[in-house]
Specification:
With 229 residues, the protein is of the alpha+beta class. It has 7 helices and 12 strands. Strands 1, 3, 4, 5, 6, 7, 8, 9, 11 and 12 form a 10-stranded mixed sheet that branches. Strands 2-10 form a two-stranded antiparallel ribbon. Helix 1 packs across helix 7.
Length: 229
Amino acid sequence: SGCATGSSSGASPQDTAFYGGTILVTAQGGQSTLPLTKIEEIKNVAGVKTAFPTYRFDATTGVVESAGSATSDEIVASDPTEAAWSNLKTNYAQGHAIDADSSGEVVLGSAIASELKKTVGDTVDLPIRPSGGASSHSFKVIGVLDVTHTGPDRIANINITDGQMLLKDSMPAAQRDQIDVTTVATAIDVYAKSGTSVTDLDRMADEINKQVVGVKAIKPSELVASVKR
């Protein structure tokens, strides 16, 4: 893209830490979800240490986001233990993390918190302006993250059960009762051992694509390169 020098491709060290340490796995062929059973298959690929289901939505409309670099505000539901695997460490400007078994709680990134003018103790309706058949739900702000200058600034973080609720909302009415949202995710985040190079992660993404049917593993180098400065 343009006249990027070296291997930086315009991405900051923060972008590289955030996007360059994870292999993002999505469904193939325009499907919006993939079965959680794929997690065990992915864990069998050499080098993979762990994998987590995630649910990503456009924060405004509630539409399922195909995985990639955050180009707009997002709602992301993930396992609270996943943060420990990220190369980018996030700190709390206010408040604390979501309790594992809670619902209706949200931790806001710095940018989305200031856009919505919300602090700890406030409530926020997410998605902000739902489209289609989706509806808005009230969440209590329990944490606001420090500025990271990359993806997390634009993310509203919620619990997995709330993510599954939003996923059900996002489906056409006819499908809502046919799909068990607790058996699928919109993406799977895959991690190798700490310190694994982007080149090695790219190779693992290729292996996932070869060995696991019906998924598309995105190379971390492509995610880093896609970050718009």
